[in-house]
Amino acid sequence: MRVLIILLTFIFYSVTICTGELSLRDYDEFDVPTGTHIPVISLQEFSTAYCEEGDKVSFETTADLYLYNKNVIPQGTKLSGYIDKKNEPIKGTNAAMRVFVNKMYLPDGYEIPIKAYIYNANNNIIGGNLTPPAKYIRTPHYQRWAMFRAMGTLQCVPGAERQMGQHVTIASGADLIIVLVAPIHMTHTLIN
């Protein structure tokens, strides 16, 4: 009797496969578009003072990201990347770094490759701004309306020399935003 049931089951499945009537699970594949912002926190401190290009950094999402009425990137998703570019501080300019994010780990452990950077308005480079002037030069300015030409105002004008630059540090737990530079092709979402 068992052999007959197994034989009939085998025949049924082979007939449905040959005729193409086998219905597969419907996978909703979609793309998370380029330019999408993902809010994250840093899971470690990293700085231009002690990190080098290629050092690994990790982050965690702080909010759910919904797209097409689905929670595509849930809160608690881990992201990892590395320091892509680093510039040391010099006289007149603070240190700078750029962080590339290349992996996303959903809470169920599924890994998805991504292309993203820590967002900054300066072409995604953190730091690199000018330092304050090293000294100010006092310059007298005379007003035209003064009765006597000897009356004037003393104004402090920034000198040409600037202070030495400082290192840039991102603290552990810092709120950051990751921006996608290439779409993420999603074939896997969590079902609650």
The global form is elongated
Q: What is the CATH architecture term of the largest domain? A: Beta Barrel
* Strand-pairing-aware structural class: mainly beta
- CATH homologous superfamily of the largest domain? Type IV secretion system, VirB10/TraB/TrbI
Largest sheet: 6 strands, antiparallel, barrel
CATH topology (level 3) name of the largest domain? Lipocalin
What's the number of structural domains? 2
Number of helices: 1
- Helix amount: under 10%
What is the string of helix and strand elements? HEEEEEEEEEEEEEEE
For the record, what CATH class of the largest domain applies? Answer: Mainly Beta
- Residue runs with pLDDT of under 50 for 5 or more positions: 21-26
Rg measurement, Å: 29 Å
Strand content: 35-45%
Written overview of the protein:
- With 192 residues, the protein is mainly beta.
- The chain has two domains: 29-130 and 166-192, Lipocalin (Beta Barrel); 132-161, no CATH class.
- It is built from one helix and 15 strands, in the order αβββββββββββββββ.
- The strands form five sheets. A six-stranded antiparallel barrel has the order 2-4-7-8-9-14. A two-stranded antiparallel sheet has the order 1-15.
- The chain is elongated and about 115 Å long.
- The model is unreliable at 21-26 (pLDDT under 50).
